[in-house]
Amino acid sequence: MDFQVVVLAGGTSESLSPLISKDVPKALLPVANRPVLSYVLDLLESSNLKDLIVVVEGQEAARLVGAWVSSACVDRLSVEVVAVPEDLGTAGALRAISKRLTASDILVISGDLVTDVLPGSVAATHRRNGAAVTALLCSVPVSGPSDAAVSGGKDKAKKPNRLNIVGLDTTKQFLLHIVSGTDVEKDVRVHKKKIRAVGQVRYQ
């Protein structure tokens, strides 16, 4: 399948300290005695998606990930590990490696993704529908007051404004609008032509 795959593998974010550090970047965080990145690479290989760019934040983190990839993926996958500056975000990371993206179809996947959906199925759906963009989405539960009470208030609930706000048509087949919760103060603005085109936009 002639897709080029970009794996966003993160770096050494302080949000996961002390689990990750300068010596153990996020991509190499052990999960069931295996680096978390290995699960994503296995998933891609099972879908015959083998042309990969693994994007890592920071030169040292990229060096460590590259060393692991060289030993773990030899003769299995074509993997290029690329270092980008920290805190670029998804769009910034893709912009930083844009000259390396030469295929007509690009699949972008998180390096710590846990899913039972095969990437090949998503790629096939994208190709079959001739879509400009295909997105795999899931709902994220937002903890309420009861959760905070159980934990004694020590664990803060994930704030909705840190999540993406997604607008779909009523059949949930077409992605019409997506915006970061941090960019929304009160109301979500939607172009009237989008509503006229589908009749109704359902936000999640």
TrEMBL record:
It is found in: Cytoplasm, Cytosol. Keywords: Cytoplasm, Initiation factor, Protein biosynthesis. Its main location: cytoplasm. Pfam families: NTP_transferase. GO terms for cellular component: cytosol; eukaryotic translation initiation factor 2B complex. GO terms for molecular function: guanyl-nucleotide exchange factor activity; translation initiation factor activity. Residues 5-146 form the Nucleotidyl transferase domain. GO terms for biological process: cytoplasmic translational initiation. Gene3D superfamilies: Spore Coat Polysaccharide Biosynthesis Protein SpsA, Chain A (3.90.550.10). Acts as a component of the translation initiation factor 2B (eIF2B) complex, which catalyzes the exchange of GDP for GTP on the eukaryotic initiation factor 2 (eIF2) complex gamma subunit. Its guanine nucleotide exchange factor activity is repressed when bound to eIF2 complex phosphorylated on the alpha subunit, thereby limiting the amount of methionyl-initiator methionine tRNA available to the ribosome and consequently global translation is repressed. Belongs to the eIF-2B gamma/epsilon subunits family. Component of the translation initiation factor 2B (eIF2B) complex which is a heterodecamer of two sets of five different subunits: alpha, beta, gamma, delta and epsilon. Subunits alpha, beta and delta comprise a regulatory subcomplex and subunits epsilon and gamma comprise a catalytic subcomplex. Within the complex, the hexameric regulatory complex resides at the center, with the two heterodimeric catalytic subcomplexes bound on opposite sides. This is Translation initiation factor eIF2B subunit gamma. It comes from Eleusine coracana subsp. coracana.
